[in-house]
């Protein structure tokens, strides 16, 4: 085991060294925020640094990434504001020049004349006029006119709302806030359309695709995409060979075990205290699905819900915020509750005050969920000033929407959880038996979950967008997709070991090896989220290379499904655990399809350049977040409930839940989300990104029909949720009463 521990330590050290190095490059090479934006001919000051930074806070307060997107990060109904601004500015200038030189609109010109004006436009837009000495950006008079035209348009849009963007009336009414918001939108578009010093691509590596100004795919994106695909194929071959070789003749199954090793298991008081979590988690799941139905309906009806103008009370930005946030809350709560439930099994004893910590965390969970949701509603409706909004309202960043106060409170709770579960694991390690190595990797994952959440606290209220995105993805990717993944792998290995399905040696080796494989690509692979977020080219090079490696272990999930199925058929007593194993099997399937296939669909820079922030992203988000982490959380719930009672279950609820969830998720993706994403991709490729996000496309008859067709999958999925929640609540109540 020394060799595998050395490999694990080396991966952690080298991967974080590379990730932090790219972080320092982001700090040093991020797009500059100028002290002033001035008109070249007159010296007039258009915007100041304070206008831009305050405008970012205004944008956060109205929901930020939950209302459209910036640099491709955010929601899908409203436009990407940076891409939309660039296109509108370009069209305005081209039309002005066309009228002046040819007395026609730009679209009426010949191809030759259009190309002449485009070359002229690129000289104006892409030339970097930032002066590092004076810290000023200069703009021409024609560009000033285009900017003012945009400012008038966006001021009216955010004041009056737009049904096709699911924007309620009165998003912003304060004139100074509207001006500051425009200053921020200008800066994001400037960074995405102006070349870096001494380079022939923008601060966002020429994202978004906008042919009018010459924003096209860079050579670096193409080169590193090709390299990542070659590396993917190479390592799939190596890992498949290794997997088949090591599994050949392996006797991981304990054939002598003919009875359930856990049949005499009795709950201790702290485990009984955990059971109430599952009732609240079921309610959160149900609420999340209801909010999801409302949110997706806004994409077809704009402001209403089957004729009722719901946006007056719950606008799209609020329902989408709650929908995504509740997903993180209930999935994380499920995994944390599983850790608390299994802790006494790990240590073999009931520890003092453990039950008090469980009850405290339960109350804290309710306070954080309800408090953050209320704060987000108040923040979006402009009841807070900007600083108060940052701490108690809406931070404006997808998956990290909750105010900083609630975020800190959640972090404190995670530290407490880490201490509570960690001391049980340490006690188990001190026994120095054969499970020592398995428990060490479990302790590492528990500590990582407790500590890496604080990466989301590194940035502040006035941090720049590239810096915020860097640390945000430390939280969303590393915390959830990295160390929770390791935690889940170790927990499943531990469970199979306790059930004597596999030996402790096999469990330990599998858990540590899996952690090495996941983290070797997963840590540096964090960078694939920020290719075009004002980051230097190193993010593309390393992100593309190592995110390809993330897919490698997922290609072997078919073997995992086969092995799980063989385990299920081995003995009659194992069938008692049929449904937890079924849910773990579905996790393997969605890991392969949702995280693997659909994940790699958007991972290479050459692909993400055209489809970032389109419905192809939603395909990956739903199949990976729910299909993998949601299904895994549900499997953990069922397993803990199975251990809580010896009674024979009436399985019809679980059967309906399992197949409803899987068939419904597949249907909503295949029938609706994926076809819409493909249509948007083709439009982005042929016409430009702004067209792919425009209401003209999203409200076209074909796309509208595809949106409505999603109701088929949604209904089937909702039936699955209903039966799962019904089963969980009923069985939890029975378990509480029987214990």
Give the helices and strands, then pairings.
Elements: H1 2-29, E1 36-39, E2 45-48, H2 49-61, E3 69-70, E4 73-74, H3 81-102, H4 111-126, E5 130-131, E6 136-139, H5 141-160, H6 175-193, H7 219-247, H8 269-301, H9 316-347, H10 354-380, H11 386-392, E7 394-397, E8 400-402, H12 404-430, H13 436-452, H14 465-498, H15 504-522, H16 537-554, H17 557-570, H18 578-602, H19 605-611, H20 615-644, H21 652-687, H22 689-692, H23 695-698, H24 701-738
Parallel strand pairs: 1-6
Antiparallel strand pairs: 1-2, 3-4, 5-6, 7-8
Helix pairs in contact: 1-15, 2-6, 2-11, 3-4, 3-5, 3-6, 5-6, 7-16, 7-19, 8-9, 8-10, 8-24, 9-10, 9-12, 9-20, 10-12, 12-13, 13-14, 13-15, 14-15, 15-16, 16-18, 17-18, 18-20, 18-21, 20-21, 20-24, 21-24
Tell me what you see in this structure:
This is Nitric-oxide reductase large subunit. Residues 36-209 form the Nitric oxide reductase subunit B cytochrome c-like domain. The chain has helices spanning 2-29, 49-61, 81-102, 111-126, 141-160, 175-193, 219-247, 269-301, 316-347, 354-380, 386-392, 404-430, 436-452, 465-498, 504-522, 537-554, 557-570, 578-602, 605-611, 615-644, 652-687, 689-692, 695-698, 701-738; strands spanning 36-39, 45-48, 69-70, 73-74, 130-131, 136-139, 394-397, 400-402. The protein has 739 residues and is mainly alpha-helical. The strands form three sheets. A four-stranded mixed beta sheet has the order 2-1-6-5. Strands 3-4 form a two-stranded antiparallel ribbon. A two-stranded antiparallel sheet has the order 7-8. Strand 7 and strand 8 (400-402) form a beta hairpin. Helix 3 (81-102) crosses helix 4 (111-126) and helix 14 packs antiparallel against helix 15 (504-522). It is globular, with a radius of gyration of 27 Å.
């Amino acid at each position: 085991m020394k060799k595998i521990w050395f490999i694990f330590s080396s991966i952690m050290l080298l991967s974080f060294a590379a990730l932090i190095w790219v972080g320092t490059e982001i700090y040093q090479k991020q797009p500059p925020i100028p002290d002033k934006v001035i008109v070249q001919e007159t010296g007039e000051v258009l915007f100041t640094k304070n206008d831009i930074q305050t405008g970012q806070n205004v944008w956060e307060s109205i929901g930020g990434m939950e209302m459209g997107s910036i640099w491709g990060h955010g929601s899908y109904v409203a436009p990407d504001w940076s891409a939309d601004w660039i296109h509108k500015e370009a069209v305005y200038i081209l039309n002005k020049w066309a009228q002046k030189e040819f007395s026609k609109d730009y679209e009426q010109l010949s191809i030759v004349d259009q190309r002449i004006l485009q070359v002229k436009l690129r000289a104006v837009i892409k030339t970097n006029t930032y002066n590092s000495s004076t810290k000023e950006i200069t703009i021409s008079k024609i560009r000033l006119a285009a900017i003012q035209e945009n400012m008038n348009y966006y001021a009216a849009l955010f004041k009056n709302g737009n049904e096709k963007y699911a924007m309620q009336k009165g998003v912003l009414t304060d004139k100074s806030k509207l001006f500051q918001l425009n200053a921020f939108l200008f800066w994001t578009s400037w960074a995405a359309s102006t070349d870096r010093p001494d380079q022939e691509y923008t601060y966002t590596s020429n994202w978004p695709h906008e042919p009018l100004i010459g924003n096209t795919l860079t050579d670096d994106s193409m080169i590193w995409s090709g390299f990542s695909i070659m590396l993917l194929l190479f390592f799939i071959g190596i890992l498949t060979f290794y997997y088949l070789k090591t599994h050949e003749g392996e006797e991981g199954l304990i054939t002598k075990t003919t009875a359930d090793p856990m049949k005499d298991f009795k709950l201790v008081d702290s485990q009984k205290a955990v059971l109430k979590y599952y009732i609240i988690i079921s309610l959160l799941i149900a609420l999340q699905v209801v909010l999801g139905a409302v949110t997706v309906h806004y994409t077809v009806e704009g402001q209403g819900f089957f004729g009722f103008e719901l946006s007056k009370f719950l606008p799209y930005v609020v329902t989408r915020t709650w929908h995504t946030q509740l997903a993180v809350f209930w999935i994380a709560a499920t995994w944390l509750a599983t850790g608390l439930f299994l802790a006494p099994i790990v240590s073999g004893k009931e520890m003092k005050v453990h039950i008090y910590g469980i009850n405290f965390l339960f109350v804290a969970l309710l306070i954080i969920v309800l408090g953050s949701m209320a704060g987000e509603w108040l923040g979006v409706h402009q009841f807070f000033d900007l600083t108060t909004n940052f701490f108690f309202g809406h931070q404006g960043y997808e998956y990290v929407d909750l105010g900083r106060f609630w975020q800190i409170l959640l972090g404190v709770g995670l530290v407490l959880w880490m201490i509570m579960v960690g001391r049980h694991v340490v006690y188990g390690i001190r026994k120095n038996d054969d499970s020592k190595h398995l428990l060490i990797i479990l302790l590492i994952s528990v500590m990582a979950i407790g500590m890496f959440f604080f990466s989301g606290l590194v940035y502040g209220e006035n941090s720049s967008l590239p810096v915020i995105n860097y640390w945000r993805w430390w939280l969303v990717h590393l915390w959830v997709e990295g160390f929770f993944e390791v935690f889940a792998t170790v927990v499943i290995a531990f469970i199979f070991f306790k059930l004597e399905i596999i030996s402790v040696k096999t469990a330990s080796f599998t858990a540590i090896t899996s952690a090495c494989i996941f983290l070797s690509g997963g840590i540096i692979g964090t960078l694939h989220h920020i290719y075009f977020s004002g980051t230097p080219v190193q993010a593309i090079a390393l992100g593309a290379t190592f995110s390809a490696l993330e897919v490698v272990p997922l290609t072997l999930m078919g073997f995992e499904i086969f092995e799980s199925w063989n385990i299920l058929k081995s003995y009659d007593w194992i069938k008692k655990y049929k449904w937890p194993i079924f849910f773990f099997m579905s996790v393997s399937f969605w890991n392969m399809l949702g995280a693997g296939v659909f994940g790699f669909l958007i991972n290479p820079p050459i692909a993400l350049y055209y489809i970032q922030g389109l419905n192809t992203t939603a395909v990956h988000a739903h199949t990976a977040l729910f299909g993998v982490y949601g299904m895994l959380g549900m499997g953990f719930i069922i397993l803990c409930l199975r251990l809580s009672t010896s009674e024979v279950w009436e399985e019809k609820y679980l059967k309906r839940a399992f197949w409803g969830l899987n068939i419904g998720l597949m249907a909503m993706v295949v029938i609706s989300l994926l076809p819409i994403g493909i249509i948007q991709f083709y439009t982005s490729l042929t016409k430009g990104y702004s067209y792919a996000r425009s209401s003209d496309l999203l409200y076209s008859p074909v796309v509208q029909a595809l949106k409505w067709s999603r109701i088929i999958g949604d209904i089937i999925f909702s039936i699955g949720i209903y039966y799962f929640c019904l089963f969980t609540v009923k069985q939890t109540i029975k378990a509480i009463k029987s214990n």
